[in-house]
Structure formats: structure tokens, C-alpha cells
């Protein structure tokens, strides 16, 4: 493994042309309006986990299409609100898993939310997961989720997941234990991409986030990623288009509605990114493309990026967790 992408000074200046459809805002406005027709109906059911220093709740809310999306809501035991709140989205293949496996941010004294990713979770197991019940989920695609519904933006898998991220924010901010003015979003890999999507879409529904911390984010600058890496999950798209040769223009048009570069431009929240310069899964140039454009149409919020020069997709690991703890504490103060 070596640094295979651009030199750091080139990455810092990298501002590629990323296609953006003329109806991008209309597409997401109508998508979120459609989702809003379903009763959010958030429920928080307290459960026992064997960790008495925390109060843990089984979270359920209505996401895209009314699908009941699962999650965990964890607070310090006996805490009284309102609390600063960290909402975490999960990496590819991950699900909410077992509630006692992720408690670091609750241990810091904050409310902590883990959102399940519909249709995924095989790497985590654990409690009841969230299905992907959309009829669009059955369209032809390669194994995995990157090409499910790829021929139509309205059918694409990530339309449903991105919408779930926003609905999760709406569900959580109404909880009396949550300080709605101090909500941050975070996650690694796919979770980082979902954090960017949530930050970009939150303004469409009038949510002001306190921060966004994408760690080695996925789902940005698709065209570049497909060009320079043969690792999954991006390579799922390559395999698909190697067979469906006639669908290349259609597929790239669909992906443009979901590109973290285009969504991140619209974000208003301060951001802390991270990147691994030897990352073969989410190449550094794709991360920097999202970072360099982040917030441009949202008032240019403060942003910074932590660079891990000798790391692959693990990025900063626990070093990055510590960095986020410090940064969140600054924001919440």
C-alpha cells in the first residue's frame, strides 16, 4: 500500500467539475415533501442492556415511504434534558447492532443516536433491523446496494437512505432529552457520506445542525472513484456497467443527485472531515472534492480536515474518535 492518488498540495487545491442536474433542488424538495406525508411517529422504548450507567431506548420512526426505521437512543443514566446530541450513521454493511457496543459519545455526557441503514446490517447482527421494503429495491443490480435502482434517481437506493437520515433528525429533535440547537452528525465511510448528505439536506426542512464530522467519507465524486479504485463498494458500479454498457450515461446522471460534492455544497453546519492518504476504498481525491466544495452554497461555514498520511480506509481510527470528542465538546460549549 502506498500513496497512489494526487500529492497533498494538489489534493488541497482539487476542485473538479462534478455534474449537477438542473432540477437538483426540485428533486430533493419533492422527495422530502413526499416523505413528510407519512406520520413520523417516533417511539423511544426503554430497554435493559446490562449497562446501568446508561439509559438505552429502542428508537423507531417512519422513514422514506413510511418504512419503520430502527435505531438506538442512548443517554447517561438519569440524565435530564436538554442534552447535546450526536447522531451517527453507519458504514457499508453495518447496522445498529447491539446497543452496548457503541457508547463512547454517551459516555461523554451527551445523548447519542445510532440510525440503522435499511437493508444492511449483516456485519453487525443484533436486534431487529430495518428492511428496504420499496418496490424499487427489486430492480436488477449487482450484489450490494450501489446499483439498486441506478437507472432512475427516484428509484435509487440512496434516495431512500438519504431521506431516512433527515427523518431521523426530525424524530430525534422532538425528544425532550435533546437540545435541538446542539445536534451534530457523524459517521465513517458510508456513515461519513450520509453525514454529508444529512448536512446538505437539513436546510431543506429547516434544521440547523451544530456540526458535521464525516470520517473518511464514501459516496462523493463517484466518477473519480470509479476511475481509480477497483475496491468495493464503488467497484459494484463498475461491474454493473461492464455488463449494462448502454446504461453508462443514465447511471452517471442518477449518481449526480446523490454525490456528496453536490449535497455538501448546500451544508450550513461547521465541518470536521478526515482522510487517509493511502485509502483505496474512498480515494483521497474523492474526499477532498467533497471537502473543498463543502458549504459553498451554505454560507461557507468553518471547516477543517484531519489528514492521516500513512493510513488506508481505517483512517484515524481511535485517534479520530478522540479528535471528534474534542471538537464536539468545543461546539457544544
Automatic annotation (TrEMBL):
<dbReference type="GO" id="GO:0052689">
    <property type="term" value="F:carboxylic ester hydrolase activity"/>
</dbReference>
<protein>
    <submittedName>
        <fullName>Acetylxylan esterase</fullName>
    </submittedName>
</protein>
<feature type="active site" description="Charge relay system">
    <location>
        <position position="279"/>
    </location>
</feature>
<dbReference type="GO" id="GO:0005976">
    <property type="term" value="P:polysaccharide metabolic process"/>
</dbReference>
<feature type="active site" description="Nucleophile">
    <location>
        <position position="189"/>
    </location>
</feature>
<dbReference type="InterPro" id="IPR029058">
    <property type="entry name" value="AB_hydrolase_fold"/>
</dbReference>
<feature type="active site" description="Charge relay system">
    <location>
        <position position="313"/>
    </location>
</feature>
<dbReference type="InterPro" id="IPR039069">
    <property type="entry name" value="CE7"/>
</dbReference>
<feature type="binding site">
    <location>
        <position position="92"/>
    </location>
    <ligand>
        <name>substrate</name>
    </ligand>
</feature>
<feature type="domain" description="Acetyl xylan esterase">
    <location>
        <begin position="1"/>
        <end position="329"/>
    </location>
</feature>
<dbReference type="Pfam" id="PF05448">
    <property type="entry name" value="AXE1"/>
</dbReference>
<dbReference type="InterPro" id="IPR008391">
    <property type="entry name" value="AXE1_dom"/>
</dbReference>
Amino acid at each position: 500500500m502506498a500513496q497512489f492518488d494526487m500529492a497533498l498540495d494538489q489534493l488541497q487545491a482539487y476542485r473538479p467539475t462534478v455534474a449537477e442536474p438542473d432540477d437538483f433542488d426540485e428533486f430533493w424538495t419533492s422527495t422530502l415533501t413526499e416523505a413528510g406525508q407519512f406520520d413520523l411517529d417516533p417511539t423511544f422504548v426503554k430497554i435493559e442492556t446490562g449497562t446501568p450507567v446508561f439509559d438505552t431506548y429502542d428508537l423507531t420512526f417512519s422513514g422514506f415511504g413510511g418504512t419503520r426505521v430502527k435505531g438506538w437512543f442512548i443517554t447517561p443514566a438519569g440524565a435530564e434534558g436538554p442534552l447535546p446530541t450526536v447522531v451517527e450513521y453507519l458504514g457499508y454493511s453495518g447496522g445498529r447492532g447491539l446497543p452496548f457496543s457503541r457508547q463512547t459519545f454517551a459516555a461523554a455526557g451527551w445523548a447519542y443516536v445510532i440510525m440503522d441503514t435499511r437493508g444492511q446490517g449483516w456485519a453487525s447482527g443484533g436486534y431487529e433491523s430495518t428492511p428496504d421494503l420499496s418496490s424499487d429495491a427489486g430492480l436488477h443490480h449487482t450484489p450490494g446496494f450501489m446499483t439498486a435502482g441506478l437507472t432512475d434517481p427516484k428509484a435509487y437506493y440512496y434516495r431512500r437512505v438519504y431521506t431516512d437520515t433527515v427523518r431521523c433528525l426530525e424524530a430525534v429533535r422532538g425528544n425532550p432529552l435533546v437540545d435541538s440547537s446542539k445536534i451534530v452528525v457523524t459517521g465513517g465511510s458510508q456513515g461519513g457520506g450520509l453525514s454529508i448528505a444529512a448536512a446538505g439536506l437539513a436546510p431543506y426542512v429547516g434544521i440547523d445542525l451544530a456540526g458535521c464530522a464525516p470520517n473518511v467519507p464514501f459516496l462523493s465524486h463517484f466518477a473519480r472513484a470509479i476511475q481509480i479504485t477497483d475496491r468495493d463498494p464503488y467497484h459494484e458500479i463498475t461491474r454493473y456497467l461492464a455488463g449494462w454498457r448502454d446504461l453508462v450515461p443514465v447511471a452517471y446522471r442518477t449518481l449526480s443527485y446523490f454525490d456528496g460534492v453536490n449535497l455538501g455544497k448546500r451544508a450550513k453546519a461547521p465541518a470536521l472531515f478526515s482522510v487517509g492518504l493511502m485509502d483505496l476504498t474512498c480515494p483521497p481525491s474523492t474526499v477532498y472534492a467533497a471537502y473543498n466544495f463543502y458549504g459553498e452554497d451554505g454560507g461557507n461555514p468553518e471547516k477543517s480536515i484531519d489528514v492521516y498520511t500513512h493510513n488506508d480506509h481505517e483512517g484515524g481510527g481511535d485517534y479520530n474518535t478522540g479528535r471528534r470528542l474534542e471538537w464536539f465538546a468545543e461546539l457544544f460549549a
